[in-house]
Amino acid sequence: MLSKQSVGSVLAKAFGLYLPDENVVTATRGICALCGAAGDCIPAKQLIVVSTSEIPDIFRAGDALCTGCAAAFKASNVLIGSLLATHDGEDWYGCKPTVSMQPDRPRWRDVVYTLPYGTPTVALLTSNTKRRLWHRAILSVYSEAWRQNDDAPLIAPVIQFRRAKHFDSHWAYQQALRYRPYLPFFPRIAGKAVLFLSNPALRAEQCETLPMLCQMIRAAYGSPLWLHWLGGGWDVADIRAYAQMNALDSLDSIAYYTDAMSGIAWQADGSKQQSFEYSPEALSIRNAEIASAAAVGL
Predict the structure, then answer these.
(1) Dihedral of the alpha carbons of 254, 256, 262, 263, in degrees to the nearest 10
(2) CA 169 → CA 99, 159, 225, distances in Å?
(3) Its pTM surpasses 0.90
(4) Burial tier of 181 (Cβ tally within 10 Å: 0-12, 13-18, 19+)
(5) Which of 62, 221, 227, 285 gives a 20 to 30 Å CA spacing to 16?
(6) Are 147 and 24 in contact (CB under 8 A)?
């Protein structure tokens, strides 16, 4: 059944993504950390290499991905930006629509306006060029309810800064205003529309105007918002500093995980120590628990 398929497996089929044979050969039975499917899974250690970048925080539920999610995870050069996968009754087809007219890519309005109601769809509309946003999308059926059902968001709005190490509140605020007309299509957490802000590689202490920016955005929208900070919280002190701002609803970081892979244990007092007591997997869970405790107040 289509409803039983994960977003990862759908995108893998739609865009013709496959794992190298050596990964499939070493697959073992397990539970996918991303979609929860039971079946052949690929260990995370085979998927994450030194050159892997922009890893979403998806391995808390386990250390392996099903073959479909694994193929999507590895396709960092394909699943970038806006994506659309549709099913015609026989097979999945993928494309990368744009807002403006381009000779080699369809426009969103042309694709969406011609979709028959009842078409199984996975859609991600974003200006963000980060490689791994697809895991936030869901499988839904295109219809009038597709635009109104909180469980079937059309877009995941992400505010980007123009360059690293530079916090431009005006630039970010203007992006928020551009997203505002699409508020009914935002994903939801606890009944609140979710707006993502992408950290321009700064620590909390370098984002002095972030509370003011969040206050301005909430006032401009005039409805409850869930503001999520992407890529913040590089250590316990940084996480606590963000929490003390009382500006964000949540944040994510892989620092606890990358440190664990290097054998570095986070401590509740904010320090870090080299550890030989835990495996990397166990240490990543321990670091994540300490990070979560530090985030109390978000």
Answers:
(1) -160
(2) 25, 11, 18
(3) no
(4) exposed
(5) 62
(6) no
